[in-house]
Amino acid sequence: MEITNIQTTPFDDQRPGTSGLRKKVKVFQQPHYLENFVQSIFNALKDFQGKTLVIGGDGRYYNHEAIQIIVKMAAANGFGKVMVGCNALLSTPAASCVIRKYNAFGGIILSASHNPGGPNADFGIKYNTGNGGPAPEKITESIYDISLEINEYHTIETADIDLDTIGEQTIGDMYVEIINPITDYADLMESIFDFDAMRALLGSGDFTMHFDAMNAVTGPYAYEILEQRLGAADGTVLRGEPLTDFGGAHPDPNLAHAKELVALMSGNNAADFGAASDGDGDRNMILGYEFYVSPSDSLAVLAANATLVPGYAEGLTGIARSMPTSQAVDRVAQQLGIECYETPTGWKFFGNLLDAGKITLCGEESFGTGSDHVREKDGLWAVLFWLNILAVRKQSVADIMFDHWRKYGRDVYTRHDYEAIPVADANELMDQLRDRTTELTGQDFDGYTVEYCDDFSYTDAVDLCVSSQQGVRILFNSGARIIYRLSGTGTEGATLRVYIEQQVPGDKGLDLDPQKNLAELIQLSKDIARIEKLTGRLLPDVIT
Ligand code: G16
């Protein structure tokens, strides 16, 4: 095999964010841009010669081209084999499943998740380690350091591989296995959940559901699992064909971007259960009849009902949530007598806790929930978890949620996003908040007294690595919280996320509209951070 060494010069903007490197497609299409980053990944790794690399993608624009580049570079760098999803498709949780099942050295996932796709939209790439999870910060920082000094990458000059036929090929000295992207994942789901009970519910004639795949990667998975294996009615899966530009839609499962689904969940012929997943299949949104389950509440419900699912019948070892996720699950953990860890935003922070067996379930406010079955958050898994609970409890989604609030109280919660702010303005806003954490502590704002204020810093419970500057949190003595952080996944300017939460006891919380109920705290969030003065924004762009 003849290896070609290509001279290159570094780019200074290849620092991975919350979940890998996300940029506009046009940025990735610059000569050497993708190659530099891939070589930086390989240079950051050790002892992979002869081993297996999994390559997956969410089917978005530029996936095919990127996979051809990466496969040739993997061969030139000495991998023994790559496993690639047929048609360049492999959802993020399925990639994690395949890495773990076949003991691969690691994987490269090509996705910008819920960000739009197409020639003028977004692309992304991230590296996952042998546990199937996103590389921890010490690896992503090392990739970044290498990318700043890289001067050469390795490839081989050969014809493209056939991405559309299942089976083995060789390229240079390396095997290429094109795999069915669905089967391993669907089998894993069948091993966790009570498919008989779910089949009975879906076949009862008394229950209907919709799953919105948002023209993204979960379509084929949902057809196989929901319609084929579980017998859900034809047409259960909506927008089920993966499209490179997601049909021009924004594949983000929330109330704003899954409007068609939301419309199907109210009125006379509405379904009982609705769900959606995102571009790469790791996010989920859960709906009942005229009812929306917030992601933080969903995590709490899954934790409280876990033993109804065969895969978790033995109970949970512990739970983790990201810091801005509401504290609803904390009270479930307390009741169960298990630990609840608070981590920074980013799935990579759950990996060590899962590997060490310290937690079984974890989740985030950003529509992500998962467990120790893989090392990524998992959209369809969360949908199946709810379906399993519905099949056993035989109650509506709303009734399950109301029961939960009655028992544990409710955290009324909202997130306000201010998007595409000039980066300098956003940094100034965060800097001035950081500078005022001591000054804010103890202050009273019309009855809201700040009990504690800091810039969140996390020490990993396993490897003791410290991650600082993870968001300014203001905790009030009423139990309310306001949290500010900048998104690490955007591709245009900066996105300021403001998370607002207030706990209310049992029955009092049943009918509360978060925007109305949290109005005072929302106003306070604007005043304390001087959002209008520093960014010129009066209102957020997206509310979840
Ligand atoms: C990614 C990460 C999540 C994170 C989310 C939002 O999700 O995997 O852990 O919560 O981004 O991050 P940020 O608030 O920094 O934008 P995904 O679904 O985009 O891969």
Describe the structure.
With 544 residues, the chain is α/β, with parallel strands linked by helices. It folds into 3 domains: 3-181, Alpha-D-Glucose-1,6-Bisphosphate, Chain A, domain 3, CATH 3.40.120; 185-408, Alpha-D-Glucose-1,6-Bisphosphate, Chain A, domain 3, CATH 3.40.120.10; 410-543, 2-Layer Sandwich (TATA-Binding Protein). 32% of the residues lie in helices and 24% in strands. It contains 19 helices and 27 strands. The strands form 6 sheets. A 7-stranded mixed sheet has the order 2-6-5-3-4-9-8, with helices on both faces. Strands 20-21-24-25-26-19-27 form a 7-stranded antiparallel sheet. Helix 2 (33-44) packs across helix 3 (63-77), helix 2 packs across helix 5 (137-147) and helix 7 (195-202) packs across helix 13 (379-393). The protein is globular and about 70 Å long. Bound molecules: 1,6-di-O-phosphono-alpha-D-glucopyranose. 1,6-di-O-phosphono-alpha-D-glucopyranose binds next to loops.
The DSSP helix count reads 19
| Ligand roster | 1,6-di-O-phosphono-alpha-D-glucopyranose
CATH homology-level superfamily of the largest domain: Alpha-D-Glucose-1,6-Bisphosphate, subunit A, domain 3
- Estimate the helix proportion, in percent: 25-40%
Record keyword descriptors for this entry.
seven-stranded mixed beta sheet; TATA-Binding Protein; binds 1,6-di-O-phosphono-alpha-D-glucopyranose; Alpha-D-Glucose-1,6-Bisphosphate, Chain A, domain 3
